[in-house]
């Protein structure tokens, strides 16, 4: 197995409490993978089943990170676009994309309750990527956008929140 699998094993739940399938599928999948690696039941290709469970959990985390990045990118463009013509022309599309990806984030968090507790970590990783993407898409220099995320977690997840355009 690659080093990616080794890295994933380090994020396994550390408590002795077994995660609930209904409350947090990705932690449950990682716990099951850990159990398979420990018990190595006969008649089951435990190594590959464990790898697949770890991969499913990683995909969920990647989806959350990716959707957050897009939400943040759209919010940056909405708030920091200084051309009123550009803002008028594109703001509807930016809002639509932000709303779509917010809904995806909310759906993931509803099924992955413990990921909500780590949401600030996901935002900290997604924001610099969103900042770079917004810069590349708009042609503005990256320093037009704040180095740190300017919105609270509540604002990021609030389906009715859209920042006002920047006024110079």
- Give the end-to-end Cα distance, rounded to a whole number of Å: 53 Å
Number of helices: 7
CATH topology: Malate Synthase G, Chain: A, Domain 4
Mean pLDDT: 84
Q: Runs with pLDDT <50, length 5+?
A: 1-15
What is the C-level CATH assignment? Answer: Mainly Alpha
Shape-level CATH architecture: Up-down Bundle
Main sheet overview: none
Shape: elongated
Radius of gyration equals 19 Å
The H/E string reads: HHHHHHH
Strand content: under 5%
Provide the fold topology.
Layout: H1 3-10, H2 25-39, H3 46-80, H4 84-111, H5 113-117, H6 119-138, H7 153-157
Helix pairs in contact: 2-3, 3-4, 3-6
Provide a descriptive summary of the structure in words:
With 168 residues, this protein is mainly α. It has a single domain, classed as Malate Synthase G, Chain: A, Domain 4 (Up-down Bundle), CATH 1.20.1220. Helices cover 69% and strands 0% of the residues. The chain has 7 helices and no strands. Helix 3 packs antiparallel against helix 4. It is elongated. The N and C termini lie far apart (53 Å).
At a glance:
This protein is mainly α. Helices cover 69% and strands 0% of the residues. The protein has a single domain, classed as Uncharcterised protein PF01724 (Malate Synthase G, Chain: A, Domain 4, Up-down Bundle).
Keyphrases for this structure?
168 residues, 7 helices, Malate Synthase G, Chain: A, Domain 4, disordered N terminus, mainly alpha, 0% strand
């Amino acid at each position: 197995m690659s080093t990616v699998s080794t890295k994933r094993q380090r994020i396994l739940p550390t408590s002795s409490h077994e995660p609930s399938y209904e409350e947090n599928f990705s932690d449950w999948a990682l716990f099951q993978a850990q159990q398979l690696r420990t018990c190595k039941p006969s008649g089951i290709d435990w190594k590959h089943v464990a790898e697949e469970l770890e991969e499913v959990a990683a995909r969920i985390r990647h989806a959350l990170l990716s959707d957050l990045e897009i939400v943040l990118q759209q919010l940056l463009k909405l708030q920091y676009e200084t051309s009123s013509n550009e803002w008028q022309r594109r703001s509807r599309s930016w809002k639509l994309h932000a709303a779509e990806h917010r809904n995806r984030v909310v759906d993931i968090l509803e099924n992955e309750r413990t990921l909500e507790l780590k949401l600030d970590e996901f935002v900290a990783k997604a924001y610099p990527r969103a900042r770079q993407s917004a810069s590349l898409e708009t042609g503005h220099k990256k320093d037009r956008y704040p180095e740190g995320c300017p919105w609270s977690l509540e604002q990021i997840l609030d389906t009715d929140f859209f920042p006002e355009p920047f006024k110079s």
